[in-house]
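Re: Re: token formats

Sure, here are both.
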Amino acid sequence: MHRSLARRSVAAVAAAGWMSTLAAAQTPPSEPPPDAPLDFYAAEPDLRGYVDEALERTPTVLESRARYRAARERVPQVTALPDPVVSFTQALRSLETRVGPQTNAVTLSQDFPWIGTLDLQGRVALQQAAAQYHLHQARRRDIVAQVKQAFYELAYVDAALGLAHEERLLLEHYETLARTRYATGQGLQQAVIKLQAEITRIINRRHVLDRQRLTRAAHLNALRDRPAQDPVPTIRPLAQRPVDLDRAQLYELGHRHREELQAAAALVRGSERSIELARMRSRPSFTASVGVLNVGRRDDAAGVALPPPDNGRNAVTVSLGVSLPLWRGKYRAGVEQAAAELLAHRHQRAAARNAMERGVQDALVRLETLDRQVELLDTVLIPQTEEALRATEAAYETGQLAVLDLLDSERMLIEIRLLRARYVSDSLIALGDLERAVGMRVTEN
């Protein structure tokens, strides 16, 4: 009878452990790979290569990926049962019994938390890991936006260098023309001197732009975890990318895809489960033990003369224990702490939503303003200044206008073209900021 009871008790303990482990295994599906490709607008092949390289090498991205993986490794830790304990007891003086002296005992003990505790701990840990996953993706989106900004800033400097080269060639052509007119008595030496001064100004400007390019290239190299002095090829002139986007649609996309919002939502879900977990910790836990008592054979005269039944047979013991959660204040404080953390994470989610909407509004206003400016330059100002320069050149060649008029027309055209390059670069930077605010690509390549 005792053996039957022992077997039933051991089976019950094993079943409880199996059920607790099974409950802990019922966890939500995992997130996509932490380094899955990101979708973003990049019409320039070099830019996409720079972004991919930065995402693979930038220390901040590697740090956030490691933090996410560390958070994932907490899940199997909090869903596992506590380690069983094996204890050995040696009697300093044997305890004499009817069937022989008890000399020592070996006991195996296993603690079991309240039903569902391990599963709930696993769900909390999974939500915390999910938050780290989304924060890692947010860091990757940050790097994409930063690389795009550095690339487009460098592209503007390259465009300015190209325009400075064109301007120098044009001024050298004007200088040759002025020298010819001066040699034939149709012009003044002052015109030649003014043109030479303008050429010197352009040479100095190119020197300044070269220094700026070194700085911009070093920034791009730093984002790629490359030495600052690594060469960066010249970037071709950028193409304007007009956008026609609906604010309401962008806000909706941001609510679904902004990584900081998803991270905050995961923390809110985890905090809601943390409140359940804090309440569950006020419930008792259980301890099951199975032991073996080593019993020696009787060697006294009576035992040798008339051995009792089961003489020297070891005894098997089974025990069940339950914790007594008496300190209620500790458990109430745990519930209050979880509730305060939930409130904090809800405020964090609201702040992330506000930041997303503010980012969308700011980037979209910049995009719309810059697009109108580029359209005005392309359709009105650049054609007008080009026509004015052609007319001024013709009038100068015939002696109707002075060299200062020619220089004014030439400067105006170069400045407008330089302004257009600035607007296009700023527009593409604003588009990158809009993608960062929303958390996804918002226009086709």
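Second one below.
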Amino acid sequence: MTNMFSLQLLRELSITWLDLFAVVFLLATWIAYTIFADWRGRRAPSLHSQMDGFHREWMVRMIERDNRMVDVNVMRTLTRSSQFFASTTMLILGALIALMGYVQQALDVVSELPFTIQASQRLLEIKILLLVMIFAYAFFKFSWAIRQLGFCSTLVGAAPKQPKDNIEQYAPHINRIARITSYAGVNFNSGLRAYYFALAALAWFLHPWLMMAATGWVLYILYHREFASKTLRALAEEDHSTTLRT
């Protein structure tokens, strides 16, 4: 009974078992890598963990300064990065939704490309819908990062100025700002990962096997950049963490 229902559902959606496996492979890889990156980031140096140390040191220096225009400008730069991707994501979502009204024309274009599998109009709609879901997820991540950085800006403005020999007294305030900045970095990084996996999903328009190959390529790129890049080695040359504890 279950097999018959599954076959009927696949026929109604005009999707093959290979297409279904490719989608499951992409989503499973994405989820598994997110879990793995969080686990490994707590046990080995990563871009995020190294930047957390610099964020904490930045807040220590910020407390010592009278003029905090430098800190405001740095926070503004971080916010603008998230704002850029959030606005870009909205444009992409608008284009994808508009494309839903021109599925037949898009199908004619895709069918003329080499190494493509002939797909039905329903299947092409599903492929577009997958991209819509991925970019919607990215938008929520970027917009939440913007709000968190806005909270950090308020906390920077509320931070007192204290001499260097009394810095431990204000460790809770420093750690609070550093943690929220770290949370914003996590959300921004999640949004960027969505962009990477969206590129892999885009390969589905050509062939399911190509999407799986692109997913593996994205997985390699993400791991290398977060855990084995030259940038990480440069950040980890010295320990910039402070003695403050969360």
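Residues 240-246 have pLDDT under 50 and may be disordered. The chain has nine helices and no strands.
- S.
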